[in-house]
Amino acid sequence: MIIGRGTVVAGIGAVILLGMLGFTGYAAYSHDKDCPPAGAEPPPQGMLYSKDRQFGVNSKLCLAWRPTKYFEKEIALQAERETALESARAAEKSAAETVANGLSADKASAEARLTSAEARRVQAETWLAELPAAADVALFIEDTRMGDTFKARVPGPRDPDDWIWQPIQLRAPEDYGSDAAKTWRGLLTGVSREGSRKVRVGLGDPDAKLPRKGAEIGMKVSAFDSRGLLLGSLGFLTTMAGIVMIGWRTALLRSQGPRDDNQNPPFSLARVQMVWWFMLTLAGFLFIWLTTGQWRGVMTSAVVALLGISGVSGLTAVAIDTTPATAGQSPAIARSKNFLTDILSDEKSIVLPRVQMFAWTVILGLIFIWSVVWSYTFPAFDPTLLVLAGVVNGVYLGFKFPENKQAAEAAKKEPD
Fold first, then answer.
1. β-pair type (216-222, 54-56)
2. 187/347: higher pLDDT
């Protein structure tokens, strides 16, 4: 009956979780958001503007900007060179008229002035032609250049001072180890309870270290929707609760052995540890994937090693529990007392190897949770901690042999 209820609870949690995953994926990768038309809602002043004061990691950012203000230096240089060209053309025209009309007594001098004026005009045309008609503009967030750039036309000195809406599709790379992915995770670190933090968004040259002066505005970057996070957590916890309910009367969390309504084997510390790391790694992976969009390379070798250690411990514990204490005998069947007593004690009392394994499993799990929630990374546990995890698991398994012997002796004394 409990198995049936557990299956129902796990199914409900899975439906909630899948629904949340689908909604999150649709919201992150849908492209139905359009920027306002050109000239819509122009602010009275400034160089950069956004109607939306908040944006997400995987979303479309609509920025309104004034090219005449942004390219102020380029426009001034263009005006200066146009003036120089007009001056050179006027000098050339005057010199040409002088030569043609014979107004100068020194014909050679007039022709020399014409040649000089022509050279000035050619040089002025060359300098003006060297100015780019368009330029690349890069997006900066918190004075860090992102990978997004767009091409913009450099306006002329007599162009109108209009606002232009520029859509920028933000995408965090799927590769967890790339520099751009690390930049995004750095921006999301330290968000508020609502899942956002204040940042400076700006525009600048792709080869610059900072955005252009005045081309910055304050916005908020959203790491997650608190309602979506709550719904996802509810679905995940409901699923895990259903799995635990299923394991409450099966070998999922308990030692091997026959079970009926009046007898349950004790809970197995090794199996509980396996479920613990399974739950943490699954929840952590889903959180990082849904928050940053990154899934390649999220799992670290240290976490894989911990999963391997817990898996080997669980397999070895099963082998020890199912090995008869004496040749020809059936495995001893102990009875469960309660959860904490089962995982921390042998047949007589609480024992140090189990307490040690339980304590370090909880500590490493809390470090894992802190790293995922705060910095969106799976922790890279140092080799010493991994060796420690292996040692405490090995000591626990070593002490299971005398524990099983005690259980067999206790089972012999119990009345049928």
1. parallel
2. 187
